[in-house]
Amino acid sequence: MPVPWEALIPFGLLTACFAATGTLFRTLKQAQNDGKDTRYSLDDFERMMLERDRRLTGHFRRQRTDPIAPKEFATNSVWQTERVP
């Protein structure tokens, strides 16, 4: 049975399009995460630490090495307050 060589051109185009899209998507995700890989299967504690890091640094993937938090952190709370009448 002969090989249909003319089918290899569309197959190569489709493969190249999927590879380019996947590479672009991964590059964009890494750029959003400060060049680090995407995190999967996060539990509640890890989400809580990511939120704490976001409140401390402004980005959820960065961390600080200062032993004392900045003074804005005292009023930058996760808990939303309601206006009491």
Automatic annotation (TrEMBL):
What are the protein's UniProt keywords? Electron transport, Membrane, Mitochondrion, Mitochondrion inner membrane, Respiratory chain, Transmembrane, Transmembrane helix, Transport
Q: What membrane topology is annotated for this entry?
A: Single-pass membrane protein
**UniProt xrefs under InterPro entries:** NADH_Ub_cplx-1_asu_su-1
Q: Which family does the record claim for this protein?
A: Belongs to the complex I NDUFA1 subunit family.
**Location relative to the cell:** Mitochondrion inner membrane
Primary location: mitochondrion
Matching entries from Pfam families are given as: MWFE
Protein known as: NADH dehydrogenase [ubiquinone] 1 alpha subcomplex subunit 1
Region Disordered, as annotated, extends over 61-85
Q: Per the record, where are the segments of Polar residues compositional bias? A: 74-85
